[in-house]
Amino acid sequence: MDTSIPALVIGAILLVGASILGRSSILSYDRLGQQVKAVEARAGEQARTRLTITSATLDGPRDTLTVQLRNDGQTKVGTWETLDVLVSYTSAADVRLDVWLPYTSGAPAANTWRLSSISPDAFEPGLLNPGETATLTLELSPAAKAATTHLLVISTETGVTVSTPFSR
Prior knowledge:
By secondary structure, the chain is an alpha+beta fold. 27% of the residues lie in helices and 35% in strands. It has one helix and eight strands; from the N terminus they run H-E-E-E-E-E-E-E-E.
């Protein structure tokens, strides 16, 4: 009888410990499963997203880069603020610049970009649906060097990236 009460207490502690450990393991596996589902959903979104830059033209006097971005994928693009627009170029003063341009909905200022138009934009205005082409206007400052090849990179929030060289 002397040892039965401590044995009961130890047994109860072991049962509580095992149930706590089991519960935390189940919760960990559940969180892991949710993360795997999120990764699969993002991978599927990436696989269905395909953008093509059909042209990139630099207007000399204003240093405005006009870009035609066509949606050749199956998903629409419409959260313009989440696009990353990067330009790697040499300035007229022979300085190498790598610039991230933020989105602006108004008139573009120096080192910003905006959505000028979408053509044809008959379905869901303001969204770049499959088969449509967006015209983006980028304002570079300082001016890009003439007769030099520069690089434009556009990346979506899901990590799909498209790039093209351009020159004056």
